[in-house]
Write a structure and sequence with these properties.
Blueprint (H helix, E strand, L loop, with lengths): L4 H4 L7 E7 L20 H15 L2 E8 L3 E8 L9 H9 L6 H8 L5 H17 L3 H20 L11 E4 L3 H12 L1 H4 L13 H6 L5 H10 L32 H12 L17 H4 L4 H26 L1
Antiparallel strand pairs: 1-3, 1-4, 2-3
Helix pairs in contact: 2-6, 2-10, 3-5, 7-11
Length: 320
């Protein structure tokens, strides 16, 4: 019998979780259905766009992701404490960027004059939405529901698109986190969809190596699909790597990006009988394939931390 999500997800135990969501009836999320000849490749973008935008709205960090043919993987870090300093107005704005919100909240946003009792009810709504913005189940609900609606419209059908609930697995050690991230980033290679990590489309590792995500295009696409009302927050970068342990608070992954790339590259060269693909043993090491000299590498490896600091500064300026 399935266990309650509250029993499976506990931030006090670990903030990191591996999440999988799979299509029902072997429906194609994306890729090409060889049985019918139809191509669903464009749906990969829907998922990737939605992941990045939702992570910026919610109190979540994305450590890794991979969009496959009929399922996708996420490695997320839950950050429920991030919602505490948000004002009620910011909470309402974030929630209403995804949903219409109750009529009373809509009136509040229009600037209508509200009585004290109505303002109190608006504050109650804000506290409800504050809790939801730090909750994994609500994050997944806001991720999967619009994708299902859009796919059903495109397929001209109704009914379930996703297979039951999403599956989540706690990652309670650094080893578990790194091995899971490598597993997720190597999924396209194991499925023989790509030859190397840097050519694995719609994965976090390719986005880290060769960033191509366009915020403007993502907002336009999600708005046209009626999955987004507004987006007025800074785009949150992928969770960064921190190769040095400090006494101060550390937000990122306690591992250097250089070491992680080498870990993924070495792991991907190990062939498995139950998987179709692997990185060619004769391929150059990944750092050589990327043609990075030490100076360039240092700049690129530290860019993620700098980007996240810029994001935090932007958040503080908006709050002020």
């Amino acid at each position: 019998m399935p266990r309650a999500r509250a029993e499976l997800v506990c931030v006090s135990d670990t903030p990191f979780y591996h999440v999988i969501s799979r299509c029902v009836r072997r429906t194609f999320l994306c890729g090409r259905d060889h049985a019918t000849g139809r191509c669903y490749e464009h749906r990969r973008g829907w998922i990737e766009e939605r992941i990045r935008l939702l992570a910026s709205v919610f109190a979540m960090d994305i450590a890794a992701y991979a969009v496959m043919s009929n399922h996708y993987h996420l490695v997320v870090k839950l950050c429920p404490d991030d919602v505490e300093p948000w004002s009620n107005d910011e909470v309402l704005a974030r929630w209403c960027s995804l949903h219409k919100g109750p009529p009373l909240v809509q009136r509040y946003h229009r600037g209508d004059k509200l009585c004290a009792a109505e303002l109190g009810r608006v504050a109650q709504y804000a506290e409800t939405f504050r809790a939801r913005l730090g909750d994994l189940s609500w994050f997944m609900k806001c991720l999967n529901e619009p994708i299902a609606r859009q796919a059903n419209r495109e397929d001209q059908c109704t009914g379930h698109f996703w297979e039951s609930r999403f599956k989540s697995q706690p990652l309670d050690t650094e080893e578990a986190l790194l091995s899971c991230m490598a597993y997720v980033d190597l999924n396209p290679i194991r499925a023989a969809m790509a030859d190397t990590p840097e050519t694995s489309d719609h994965t976090s590792i390719k986005e880290r190596i060769k960033p191509t995500f366009s915020l403007a295009e993502a907002i336009q696409q999600q708005t046209e699909q009626q999955a987004l009302n507004d987006f007025a927050v800074p785009l949150k970068p992928l969770l960064g790597f921190e190769g040095v342990i400090r006494n101060s608070f550390q937000r990122g992954i306690l591992f250097s990006f250089e070491d992680y790339l080498e870990l993924v590259d070495c792991t991907g060269r190990i062939s498995r009988d139950d998987k179709r693909g692997a990185i060619d043993e004769k391929a150059l090491p990944i750092l050589e394939r990327l043609n990075l000299d030490p100076g360039q590498w240092c700049e690129r490896a530290t860019r993620f931390e700098e980007t996240y600091q810029d994001y935090r500064k932007s958040r503080r300026r908006r709050a002020a």
